[in-house]
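Researcher: I'm preparing a figure for a lab meeting and need a structural model of a single chain. I don't have an experimental structure, so a prediction will have to do for now. The sequence is pasted below. Please return the structure as tokens so I can convert it later.
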Amino acid sequence: MSQLKSEIAAIVAAEGPISVERFMALALGHPRHGYYMTRDPFGRAGDFITAPEVSQMFGELVGLWVASVWQTMGAPGKLRLVELGPGRGTLMADLLRAGRVLPGFSEAVDVHLVETSPVLRAAQKASLAGRVAALHWHDRVEDLPPGPAIIVANEFFDALPVRQFVRQGGVWRERLVGLGADGRLVFGLAAESEPRLTQQAGEGAVLEVPLVGHGIVRALAQRLAADGGALLAIDYGHLATAPGDTLQAMKNHKPVDPLAEPGEADLTAHVDFAALGRAALAAGAVLQGPVTQRVFLEALGLGARADRLQRSGSPDQARAIAGQRERLVEGGRTGMGELFKVMAVTHPDLPMLPGFDRLTTPAEASGEEP
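Model: Understood. Here is the structure written out token by token.
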């Protein structure tokens, strides 16, 4: 049994079963044994590959989007350029390189990275050395300094802990993590029901509630509504709040039991974009999108960028670029182009931004935040 699994088992033995939310928080962020605290999980040698690792084109297009939004904001002389969960720093490096095409952008940006992992902070420092005058790291979004900001979050919200509830006997009961007779970690249900959940669903349905994500989006939306700017969120998930068990664990690019190896496998849950959008609107910001990653990247000129790179490279490089382009916009239930969604949360004065086709203000929103 791993050290973290032993610690979680000891917590359960002493305090009783814990929520899925707390289990995820420990598995991913435990200060000594948490998954993100002890390793670089990205790339073929890790457990998963993100879009910035697939192709430089992804980061370049995001960089052009950020620079365009800065210009739309009136090109402020000081901009907080923030990335949440920056991985190895690959996306930020490509973003900054592309942003140089707009005069004044590089001089205006002040780069802030929200990252808790010491391993990944070191990788980010190496990737971004010499690209900006200074880098600033923060453990929490609440620690970010005030001022106009553009915030990028690629595959950040999927790694935030969620609570899970199961429909049983016509009521919702929280799913918990406890100990089985053999000492293994197992799922169970709370004895008490959760009366605040009123959604109707069939017996055995699972409902995921991203309270941590709600809080972060609400805080960022309040900041953007007051100080100006935009949040660009790119992640895999669904457009409408609906029951479904999406908790998954990945190790060596293969799915594993979420409870089997806490701290040794990546844990994620699909992002409920509708729920996050409601949180942003309730805080006074404007919502643009969500749209699929395919729609967003193609609207930003992915095809033209790929064609240009293909013409400037060798035949082998051209084939590789064509494959990268296809992977970024691939359709189907598991293709990145359809599974991944893109959403912007903005100050109310900003117009429709590149890549989006609809805008929702707080006054136009319907329904209440759960």
